[in-house]
Amino acid sequence: MVRVLLSFFVLFTLLSSLLFTLTDAASKPKPKPNKKMVNIVLVHGAIADGSSWSRVIPILQEAGHTVLAVQQPLTSIDDDVAKVK
């Protein structure tokens, strides 16, 4: 009886591990292959800073893009434009 329970437990553990592995792999979207990847410059608004892009950057990088978030000085529009250039 103990062997049967132990065998059942081992089988259950292996199957649940396999199930969790498959569902985790299926839940992550795969980036579409794109031969022409682009460089992306993210510019924050007047009441934010570069950290506002912290959730967006990893998504774009996983898709194969080069991403830069500019930290603007917010002293004047001319200074902001110069920093982005």
Automatic annotation (TrEMBL):
It comes from the Eukaryota. Residues 1-25 form the signal peptide. InterPro entries: AB_hydrolase_fold. Keywords: Signal. This is Uncharacterized protein.
